[in-house]
Amino acid sequence: MKTVLITGASRGIGMETAKLFSQNGYRVVINYLNSYRNAKELLDEIGNNAMAIQCDISNWEQVCRMFEETEQNFGGVDVLINNAGIAQQKLFTDITNEDWDNMFSINVKGMFNCTKGAVKHMINNKSGKIINISSVWGMVGASCEVHYSASKAAIIGFTKALAKELGPSGINVNCIAPGVIETDMNSSIDEDTISELKEATPLGKIGSAIDIANTALFLASDKSNFITGQIISPNGGFVI
Prior knowledge:
This protein is an alpha/beta fold and 240 residues long. The protein has helices spanning 12-23, 36-46, 60-74, 97-125, 136-140, 146-166, 191-199, 209-220, and strands at 3-6, 27-32, 50-54, 79-82, 128-133, 171-176, 231-232.
């Protein structure tokens, strides 16, 4: 039985991904920061072969403890899904230094920390899957989300470079860049804007968290063994 560690798994895409991987026979490590109640409910729903660990992924010492606890209970991580992230809409002229640093601390440094925590076991095993969650805005940029777009673009560059480095060790590194997905993160978008986004999407709808979870499950499976360094964007044709 393989072990998957999913960061930011207490809600949205992370939660749906945790459920799907559990249903497909994985041991699941649910990482969360503040949403203890959600993580506990998810843990209760999944049942056996799952554990929840509170960890600020931007803190290297906490990440080390998370991987140590995982190894003690489940062995090393076979699949890492770097899903945790934050978003913020602001005019560029209103973005503070703190806003910028916080965005990169979670979205980029957190990914770096968790990947660093996972690769030792993967290299020793000559196998592993690393799946990074970016965004369509990391591909094309979004007005009033310069810091968010930049952080998500960094994830894409990270993925491409690391795939080349870890390929000889039998490790696949890929990236999912979701389009507009119906999650808590996008709950503040008004109905008119949602309608406009649907009209701009060839499939005429907004994506769901399970769409992304299914993509992650494919990239974690043996069916994707010859796929690495790729950016897969489930976006309904919004960006082609």
